[in-house]
Design goal:
With 203 residues, the chain is mostly helical. It is built from nine helices and two strands; from the N terminus they run ααββααααααα. A two-stranded antiparallel ribbon has the order 1-2. β1 and β2 (54-60) form a beta hairpin. It is globular and about 50 Å long.
Length: 203
Amino acid sequence: MRIEALQRDIEAIYSLNAAPSVQEFFLSRKEVRSFLGTEQNPSPQVLLFEEKDQVSLGVYLGELRLRRIERQGLERTNLADFCTAAEEVSHFSYLLWSARNRRPVSLLDVELQGEIDKFLLASLYFSRKEDLFQRIFERVSFDRRIQRLGRLRYREANRLGGKFCRTLGELFDRGGTRRAALAHLRAFYRMNTQSRLARIDAL
């Protein structure tokens, strides 16, 4: 499945141990409705369930979106579908890694990592002519169905992610190497919430 390539890309970028394929955790619209107790059409999301010491994850991308990506390929699908898939796979990978390492994470952590990862992955699969930075970090809108606190969190994650990713470009402008960029990314991935926010504030 093409979506699994995004998961393996994330594992390579951050030097993570290989995890079970994200496709094993896909949920249908009917299953998500049942879990959430609603008849509304769900938005793409990762569902996390905690029981005692057990953590279960489920990933919903939407059947139509999955079919479009499978038919067109990651390089040729539209940017909106790509970014949605990349962000949810990022959430899945980050939550799974955090659970395996017994690392507490905040919702802001998860969203911030998703913003960074969808930009990195889009940069791998799309041409620079796409003007990716502006489309991902500057020309954005948020689902009106999201409650106010959720929208504030998404806006802050987008702002912080943009600031972080801009410094990666500046690193190369100063003569930095791919190895230095990967070291920077891998260290950031493993920081706790306070250290991550402090690192971005210092940029």
